[in-house]
Amino acid sequence: MLQLTDALPAFKSYDIRGVVGDHLDAGVTRALGAAFARLVAGSHPSAVVVARDMRDSSPELAGAFAAGVADTGLDVIDIGLASTDMLYYASGSLNLPGAMFTASHNPAKYNGIKLCRAGAVPIAEDTGLAAMAADLGSGVPPAEVPGTVVVRDLLADYAGYLRGLVELSGIRPLKVVVDAGNGMAGHTVPSVFTGLAVDLVPMYFELDGTFPNHEANPLDPANLVDLCARVVAEGADIGLAFDGDADRCFVVDERGRAVSPSAVTGLVAVRELAREPGAPVIHNLITSRAVPEIVAEHGGRPVRTRVGHSYIKQTMAETGAIFGGEHSAHYYFRDFWRADSGMLAALHVLAALGERDRALSVLMADYERYAASGEINSSVADPAARMAGVKEYYGQLPGSTVDEMDGLTVVLAGGAWFNLRPSNTEPLLRLNVEAADPDAMATLRDEVLAMARNGVGATSGTTRG
């Protein structure tokens, strides 16, 4: 049995995530359940919603967490197998705090908890996780009358709610390949797609937390290879790939080519702005510069923010934004309690495609304006020193601008730009580059990578963008 202090390394910036047996076990998660109940007690909730993904460890850990909540006298609504956005639906529709047991796309040995307050309000390090860590071993005696745990199935309600947010009744028939990656989309997609004019071709819908086919992380192009090939082989109109907890969705066009999440952000933004002209739309600083251009062209107000769901949701609340998108394929909707839902974004893309008699590649060409590198990770011994060197070098180039809202963002005189930022949890630097064409992007990408990995003296070229 683990000590409670063993769980402390699992507390991250946005969630709790660690290796089962090293950081998390039933005893630890029972204590976490009690700590979470104490954290949310001030709002006097009638219950806490608990959900879980398909990992082998999830039933035991989620059950122990529910028991910990009940130990404090608070009731639990156990909605069982769910995607993370289904947990957000439960938290929002029932106006209750919630806990989702998942480690998203991480390997099978990991598990974790995404937590929110009533109304799907996110809990991050500075809004509750640090307090939970400090309270973990408080030793408060259990309540005289423990709470009850009630099982409730919300899948049909969740699916119906999403379909009610997007008009899909008039779309043309579409052949859609969906790669669930053996994750929770295999559970939710059949219900959400019920009644739609969709010929569904399922891939890896079997729930299997060992991920036998590929990692459930569509951000890595290697994990889209199977889907891209299947779309072409089937002659499908579109492919969709979800991550392990199905809160992110990636899109593949009929040619078997991945569509950038920035382009999806632009498309959904245009659709939402048609409903509410002039509304703010959030984009993080790594999305394509096409996103704020498109938002402004369609009468919206683009608002730039840091990477991360807590920043996006906070800014949405402050501005009243109707929608927000990130480069990582997280999409946030005001009408979904400002929470992220890859499934809802997918329905918007299906609606946009089904309303027109043209291929997805043609439709998305309006939103793909620049060449982007995607996110590239580099393992370095001293990320801060490398970033300082890159800043010094590029900051002195004529016409360049530098900002440090989130890591280091440099915009060069010709319009090309890059963002270099450290990982919150690993000795990594993450690089994103965008330029007018693939050659200019590759030149800038290779130059910045050489500096980030080997030091400023590793390149003698001068990029002008």
What would you say about this model in short?
The chain has 465 residues and is of the alpha/beta class.
Task: Characterise this structure.
- With 465 residues, the protein is α/β, with parallel strands linked by helices.
- Helix content is 34%, strand content 22%.
- Strands 1, 2, 3, 4, 5, 6 and 7 form a 7-stranded mixed beta sheet that branches.
- The longest helix is centred in the C-terminal third of the chain and has 17 residues, at 438-454.
- The termini are far apart.
Describe the secondary-structure layout.
Elements: E1 16-19, H1 26-40, E2 47-52, H2 58-71, E3 75-81, H3 84-94, E4 98-101, E5 110-117, E6 121-122, H4 129-135, E7 149-151, H5 155-165, E8 174-179, H6 185-192, E9 198-203, H7 225-234, E10 238-242, E11 249-252, E12 258-259, H8 261-275, E13 280-284, H9 290-297, E14 301-305, H10 309-319, E15 323-325, E16 331-333, E17 339-340, H11 342-354, H12 360-364, E18 371-372, E19 376-379, H13 383-395, E20 401-403, E21 408-411, E22 417-422, E23 428-435, H14 438-454
Parallel strand pairs: 2-3, 2-4, 3-7, 8-9, 8-10, 13-14, 13-15
Antiparallel strand pairs: 1-5, 4-5, 5-6, 10-11, 11-12, 15-16, 16-17, 18-23, 19-23, 20-21, 21-22, 22-23
